[in-house]
Specification:
This protein is 33% helix and 24% strand. With 177 residues, it is α+β, with helices and mostly antiparallel strands. The protein has one domain: Chitinase A, domain 3 (Roll). Strands 1, 2, 3, 4, 5, 6 and 7 form a 7-stranded antiparallel sheet that branches. The protein is globular. It starts with a helix and ends with a strand. The N terminus is likely disordered.
Length: 177
């Protein structure tokens, strides 16, 4: 019956190896929670969005603007009502504008660069601007605040708009073609 003795020893030795291998590396067995890098990045992003949102709210409060907020975070205020056609996807819009930072520094203006024109739904402009223009009709004048994720995001525009900057648009919608 030596084969029975060897079989029992092999089973016991295999079971022991299995138990040892299931414990994992000793540094993970001290019951401390190991941070998941993905969760850390998510928390950092949430804090950055919250901080930017607070800066935008402080800016609005400082100027006493009565702005509405969309689900994406775009703030808008139509301060002069027009009576023309509504901006719609597939239409070309032409407008005068001033783009500035929350610091008040002007970045771009149609006085210097001429009116801006684009086909709604085609892209080529900040996603927040496209969303904002769809709220207007010809003759409307409005102010928009685009959080960085709706403007130029992490890199900025590589010129006058820095990284992670919220921007303010003052727009006069001239035409809906």
């Amino acid at each position: 019956m030596p084969w029975l003795y060897y079989s029992i020893n092999i089973v016991l030795f295999g079971g022991l190896l299995f138990l040892i291998s299931c414990q994992g590396p000793p540094e993970l067995n001290d019951k401390r929670e190991v941070e998941n890098p993905k969760n850390t990045l998510i928390e950092v992003n949430k804090n950055l969005v919250k901080s930017e949102d607070q800066r935008i709210e402080d800016f609005i409060s400082r100027y006493h603007w009565q702005m509405k907020k969309t689900g994406t975070g775009l703030r808008y205020m139509i301060y002069k009502q027009g009576d023309g056609e509504e901006a719609e996807i597939g239409r070309i819009v032409r407008f005068e504008y001033t783009v500035s930072l929350l610091s008040g520094e002007d970045c771009y203006t149609s006085d210097d660069l001429g009116p801006k024109e684009f086909l709604i739904g085609k892209g080529g402009v900040e996603s927040g601007l496209e969303e904002a223009i769809l709220l207007l009709k010809k003759g409307d004048r409005a102010k928009f605040i685009l959080p960085s994720h709706l403007a130029f995001g992490l890199p900025g525009d590589g010129n006058k708009i820095p990284s992670k900057a919220a921007i303010v648009y003052d727009v006069n919608l001239l035409e809906v073609l």
